[in-house]
Amino acid sequence: MVQVNELIRVRDLHKIYRMGDVEVPALCGINLDIQRGEFVAIMGASGSGKSTFMNILGCLDRPTTGAYYLDGQEVGSLSQDAWANIRNRKIGFVFQGFNLLPRTSALENVELPMMYNGLHSGGRHQRALEALSSVGLGERVHHTPNQLSGGQQQRVAIARALVNHPALVLADEPTGNLDTKTSAEIMELFQDLNLKEGLTIVLVTHEADVAAYAQRQIHFRDGLVISDQAVRPRVQRLQG
Amino acid sequence: MWLMTLRIALRALKRNKLRSFLTMLGIIIGVGAVIAMVAIGEGAKALVRAQIATLGTNVLVILPGTATQGGVRTGSGGVRTLVDSDARAIMDEVPSVALASPTIRRTEQVVAGNLNWATVIQGVAPEIQQIRDWQVGEEGRFINQADVDNAGKVALIGQTVANNIFGNEDPIDGVIRIRKIPFRVIGVLGAKGQTGHGTDQDDVVMIPYTTMQKRIMGITHVQGIVVSAVSAEKTQEAQVQITALLRQRHRIPPDQDDDFFVRNLSDIAEAASNSARVMAILLGSIASVSLFVGGIGIMNIMLVSVTERTREIGIRMAVGARKKDIMLQFIVEAVVMAAIGGALGILLGISSSSVINRMMQWPVLIRADIIGVALLVSGGVGVFFGFYPAQKAANLDPIDALRYE
């Protein structure tokens, strides 16, 4: 048994899609380690394989071959239900399109992940409120997504990602639908969570501005990692 | 977990109130129709059964036959060969017969004080009480053998007659006059209601058949003999044996027709109850079809709902919902819709059957077990027709579902 200390260890990961008779390779042997507390930006053009890689990291898709250890556990070959459990407890998702339930209050959206781990309703409520206030949305908890601005909606989505205290947050183009100013606010929030809470964040983006908030930038091209470098993260305006 | 799933389902249904209601309407109408139709069918069955009980299922009636004189055939009752000793002989000699009573009927004016009333006077023997299951009011008694032997001037009167000529007075030991002959009222017959043909069985006066023969009609024959077989199953056997006995007693040569008819009431009763049962089954199955159609409506809307909420399903899966959580959510939604529809349908069924009862004077019988079954069936319809859409939802790929626009 390999002792794995990294939060994420990926070895020789391949993913091949079948389109009828044609085999389309999406990932062609990825090797990657991500430590706890890292803030990593994955960059690349569309078709570079970064989204496929995110789906595999998020236990939404199965690698064709290769190994993926999350938190010391080989998860690439687990059952669907085991994946659902891991997504629930260890992974928080933040999407480009926010993906909040429509006509459902911010509070209930944040409570959603706890509905699938058997937490009683009083505890859910409390934790959802805490998560919302940690992303600066203590006030508008009873508003529905269409009553909130894009930035506020993304904050709700982040609160939902955090509410089960995951080991890993996966953010897929989290600023894609936001203006520059709001993007900066959201990225500062991520940076804050990473610095103060030690949260591990893997961010997918094609914008250099956004990637600049991370400590490490990994570039994908044609299903391969072409560069992997530590960078000095952009300093927050508010940090003295 | 269950409570929460239920709440999610209710909220999802509330979001599309009109659509949910229209979908439920199929079940509401289906369940309502089943309950109302079964109530009508059961009501008809119960009515037939009650009527049969008042007639007696093991009762046979012997009527005098026809006679041909110079090419002219008289109707039934044209011959006078049936006599009271035939009744006695049938009772004593036919083993499958329990009781027999002669009957003679005629419509006469009955007078009591200054009131009068035209009714059927029936001359009977004491056995008729058991054969026809007549009850006698507490203070009275039925005709006994002594009344028959000395052609006593005693009478029992039916409820309708009592109401019409005695009003609120106690008829017991009162005097009624039939053709100016005074009769002492010895009892009031218990109410039997109407027959299936609308004849009021309580509009009757009973006197000993001997009194009828001697004092009112001046005849020696009888117009009929009412017989009860030892059991309903023995009526066929009794019919054959009575026919043989009467042919022998009336000395009818083998090449001649009977001079009497033996009528079997259980045939009529069976036919009536069969047709009522067929009607109940027919009504029930037509109604079940509408329940089935209601179920298809639920499936249709659930499929639409799954497609519409693909993204929601994707989100739920991303935050940790397992296949069975999604499955449960949609099945519960379908079942809730069907169960609410079923409950409303029960109300509709009960109220429409009582409206039918009141407006059309049809008997209805709402059975509690049918209501229970209706509720269970509508829940079952929800599970059955919700299963496929729920499975479709649960088998969605989360990646595709999240990307769905």
Instruction: Measure the end-to-end span of chain B.
Output: 29 Å
Assembly state of the chains shown: heterodimer
- Report the average pLDDT across residues of chain B: 87
Order of helices and strands of chain B: HHEEEHEEHHEHEEEHEHEHHHHH
Give unreliable regions of chain A as ranges. none
The gross shape of chain A turns out to be globular
Mean pLDDT of chain A: 91
Overview features:
heterodimer; A: alpha/beta; six-stranded mixed β-sheet; four-stranded antiparallel β-sheet; 7 helices; B: 405 residues; alpha+beta; two-stranded antiparallel sheet; 13 helices
Quick gist of this model?
Chain A is of the alpha/beta class.
Give an account of the 3D structure:
The complex is a heterodimer of chains A (240) and B (405). By secondary structure, chain A is an alpha/beta fold. Chain A has helices spanning 50-57, 80-89, 106-115, 121-134, 150-162, 180-197, 208-211, and strands at residues 8-19, 22-34, 39-43, 65-70, 73-74, 91-94, 168-172, 200-205, 216-221, 224-230. The longest helix of chain A is centred in the last third of the chain and has 18 residues, at 180-197. The radius of gyration of chain A is 18 Å and the shape is globular. The radius of gyration of chain B is 33 Å and the shape is elongated. The two termini of chain B are 29 Å apart. Chain B contains 13 helices and eleven strands. Chain B has two domains: 2-52 and 271-403, no CATH class; 80-258, no CATH class. In chain B, the strands form two sheets. In chain B, strands 4-5-9-6-8-7 form a six-stranded mixed beta barrel. In chain B, strands 2-3 form a two-stranded antiparallel ribbon. Classes of the chains: A alpha/beta (240), B alpha+beta (405). Chain A binds chain B through residues 55, 58, 60-61, 80-81, 84-85, 87-89, 93, 95, 99-103, 112-113, 115-118, 121, 160, 164, and chain B through 1, 4, 15, 311-312, 314-325, 398-399, 402.
